[in-house]
Design a protein that fits this description.
Layout lengths: L12 H10 L5 E6 L6 E6 L5 H7 L1 H6 L8 H4 L5 E4 L2 H9 L2 E5 L7 E5 L28 H11 L5 E8 L5 E8 L5 H13 L8 H8 L11 E3 L2 H10 L2 E5 L5 E4 L17 H30 L7 H10 L7 H21 L2 H21 L5 H14 L5 H21 L1 H17 L1 E2 L2 E2 L41 H5 L7
Helix pairs in contact: 6-9, 10-14, 10-15, 12-13, 12-14, 12-15, 15-16
Keywords: Membrane, Transmembrane, Transmembrane helix
GO biological process, one term: spore germination
Subcellular location: Cell membrane; Membrane
Length: 494
Amino acid sequence: MANWFKKEHKKPRLTEEIYQTFRKSEDFTCQFNSQAIRPYWICYQRNIIDTQTLNEQILPYLLYTKVYSIRELKGILPNKEIVITNKINDIENKLLQGSIMIQFHKHDGYCALIDAVKFEKRSVSTPEVEFSVNGPKEAFVESLDTNLNLIRKRLPVPELRVKELTVGKLSRTKVAVLYIEDIVEKENVQTVLQRLHDFEYDSINDTSFISEIIADNTNSPFPQVLETERPDRTASVLVEGKVVVLSEGSPQAIIAPTTLVEFFSSFEDYFMNWYIGSFVRMLRLFSVIFSILITPIYVAVLTYHHELIPRDLLATLVISRREVPLPPILEALFLEITIELLREAGARLPAKVGQTIGIVGGIVIGTASVEAGLTSNVLLIMIALAALASFTTPVYTMGNTIRLIRFPFLLLAQLWGLLGIVMCFCFMLTHLIGLTSLGRPFLEPLYPLRIRDLKDAFVRLPFSQLSKRPTFVRPGDTVRFSEKKAEKKKDIDE
C-alpha cells in the first residue's frame, strides 16, 4: 500500500489544516493515492484504527470504484458509520476517536469520516473485589459497550434509558447514565447529569473521579455513592429506581443515591436463605463496630478506667504488660501503623509476593515485637482481630473509611478515655445525620425512620416481604409485585 502514495500533491484545505495540527505526531498518517480511479487523500491515526477494516472495507472500494462526489461514499463503502462534514473541530475529534478522513480534491469543502476504531479489551472475567461463592460469575470490564451489553442482557426492557455524554477536556471520556424511566425519580437523573455537565476537569480516567464529582460532600471520609463491579447488582438497583453511571475505561459502576447500610450488604446475601443472609449481614455490622472500637477501648480502660477490668483479667493484663515500657497509646499506634503498612505493601506488590509479605511479615513482626517488649500479646491479639474484622466489609471504599476513622477514636480515647470515645461517636453520628446522597438522607432507614425499608437493611426478610421499592429513592412506581399473590403457593393439582 505504501507505494501508492505520493506526498508532492497539493493538499486540500481541510487536509492541510488537519496535517498542520497533527504533523508533529509520528503516529499520524496523511497520504495521497494517485493510482486510484478517483485520486484521494487519506488521513488517520494508525495506532487506534483497525488495519483490517482499512485494508478490506475501505481501500479496495476507493481504488477500483469511480466516485464523483464525497457524498457518494455512503452508498459505496460497506461501513455504516460515515460522517460528511467540513468542521475542523469535529474532524479532529473523530480522528482521535479512531475515524479515517478521506478527501478527493483541494477545492472540496467537505470530507468523509469513516469509523474504523480498533478496540483493545479484555474478556469478561469473574469478580475480584466482590467475589461470591453463589450467583453469577461475570464482572464489568473496561469497555463501555461490553458493560452496557451485560446490563441489557439482564434488563431487556425498552424503559431502560441510556444517556451518553463526554467529560474531561483532554481525555474526552465517554460516560453513560442509566435508569429505568417509569421507576426512577427524575430529579435524581437531572442532578447527576447537571453535576457531570457543570464539572470541568482535564482528564477523567476512572469512575472514581466521577464519584467525587457527583458526591454531595467531597470533604466527608464516607463514600456517598456505591461502586460495584457486578452487572447483576447493577441491574438489581436499576429496578429499585436508582441511577447508574458507567465510564469508558473503567470496570466499575457507580450507584446513586445510596445509604450507609448498603455498604455492609453483599449481593450474595440474596443468593442464600434469608436466615443465613440476615445472620451474615448482622455479623458484618458487628465486625465493623468491633474493628473501630476494640483498640480505643483498650487504650481508654488501661489509661483511665482500671476499675472496669475484671479481677481475673487484670492479672493477665498485668503479666502481658510487665515488660512493655511504652504507654498503651504508643503501643496501639505502633501496631496499628504496622498493620496498615503490611496491608498497603501487600496491595501494591504482585499477588503471590503480596500474600507472602502479609502472612510472614505479620507473624515475624508480631512475634518479634512481643519478645522485644514493645507490645503486649493481648493487644497484639486485639489488633489482629480488629484487622480481620475490617476485611468483612464487602465494599472496598467503605473499608478504607473504617481504616481511617479508627485513628480519631484512638487519639480521643487517650485524651479523655471512654468519654473521648463517646464524644468521637457523637461527632461521627452528627456528621452522618447531615450527610446526603443526591439529596437523600444517608442514614435512612434509621434517620429518618422508614419502617418499610428496615425489611432489607440490617436483616433481609424473605422475597415475599419485599414487595415495595425503597422509599428514600422516591420511585415513580413503588410496587414491585403483589404481596398477596406472592404468598400463595399452589400445587399443580389444586
